[in-house]
Structure formats: C-alpha cells, structure tokens
Amino acid sequence: MKKYLGFLPNTITILRVILTVLFLGILVDRLIQGLRIPAGIYVIYAFICLSDVLDGAAARGLKAESAIGGVLDVAADCLFIFSSLFIFNLFKILPVWFTAVAAANFLVFLVTSRFLIRMKPEIIRRPFVFDIAGRIAAVIFYIVPFAACVIYNHPGGESLLALSILLYVSAFLAVVSMAGRCISCFAALRYARENNNSM
C-alpha cells in the first residue's frame, strides 16, 4: 500500500496540469467570444491552488520527495502561470512587461539553482534552491490570473488599482529575488576559490 501511496504526490501534480488545461480552455473560449468568464473557472482555479499545496504536503508526509516530483511540480506551476499570462497578454488584459519579469525571474531561478547545487552538492539535495522573496513573488504570480479574471468580469478603477499593486509588488520581489540569487552565486564562487587557494 505504501508503495502505491508514493505515487500520490505526482498524481496530484498531474491533476493540476489537467485542471490547468481545462482552465485555459474555458478562459480562451470566453475571451474570444467576448463573454463573461463563468464562476466555474474560479472553482477550477481553487483546485489548482489546492493541488499545489497538497502535492508538496503529501510528498513530505509520505516521505516520497524526489527530484522528478520537484521538477514536475515546478513545470506544472510554470504551465499555469505562463500560459495564463500569455493569454491575458494576447487579449491586452495584462501588460507584456509583467510576463517578461516573471519569465526572467524563472530563468534566473533555474540557472542559479543549478549553479548553487553544483557548488554545494553535499548540502543541497533538491533539484531547486528556493528563496523567500522568490517564493512570495511566485505566490503573487499565481494570484494574478485570478485577479485578471475578476477584473475582466468587473472592470473598474478600484479593481485596476488592486491589480496594479499586485503587479508592481510581485515585480519588485522578483527583482529582489534575482539580485539576491546572483549575489549568492558570486559568494559561493568566491568561497570555493578561496578554499581552493588555501589547499
């Protein structure tokens, strides 16, 4: 039984991919037709978010954490975030600069994670290295598609202001995260060089 439960976290992640495809299909259909986005899409969104919490909790609880699971989780997150942002860019609901910042943040996350893991493989045993500013930015990236749906259905000054605040706060945190990660990489490189010279 325990052997089969080990597949549960990745199954939840795959379910998130399926829900994301459903979310995107409904979203594109409504935007093309110029119709209101149905309330059901918010239920799908809620399950997408819930699955993002549950897959990690299940992996930790069942002691089934794996590199494949970590990669699959990040890939599922990226599918939801970037596909949603791209669609909202196409329909001019969200600015392109925001998607560019999110993409740059993700690229820096991948490159610096790989670098830091190479520098300290005995300490870091996961496929990615996370930081607090980047995590908070990622949470807001997840919220933005939901906020964009709400604003599409209920356009208005206060809603636009709230969305603008979300965009700028997450962009600021993304920049802080990217800067911090680059500094960490330089520090790790300098530490490695100093240790090699002292030998």
Descriptive notes:
The longest helix has 42 residues. The N and C termini lie far apart (51 Å). The protein has one domain: Up-down Bundle (Four Helix Bundle (Hemerythrin (Met), subunit A)), CATH 1.20.120. α6 packs antiparallel against α7. The radius of gyration is 19 Å and the shape is globular. The chain contains seven helices and no strands. It is mainly alpha-helical and 199 residues long.
The coarse silhouette is globular
Instruction: Give the overall average pLDDT.
Output: 89
Uncertain segments are none
The total of helices stands at 7
Provide the β-strand percentage band. under 5%
Structural class: mainly alpha
**What about the largest sheet?**
none
The number of domains is 1
CATH architecture: Up-down Bundle
How many β-strand stretches? 0
How many whole angstroms does the radius of gyration measure? 19 Å
Q: At the first level of CATH, what is the class?
A: Mainly Alpha
Provide a brief overview of the structure.
With 199 residues, the protein is mostly helical. Helices cover 82% and strands 0% of the residues.
Present the secondary structure layout.
Elements: H1 2-5, H2 8-33, H3 40-61, H4 67-90, H5 96-119, H6 132-153, H7 157-198
Name the features:
single chain, 199 residues, mainly alpha, Four Helix Bundle (Hemerythrin (Met), subunit A), 7 helices, 82% helix
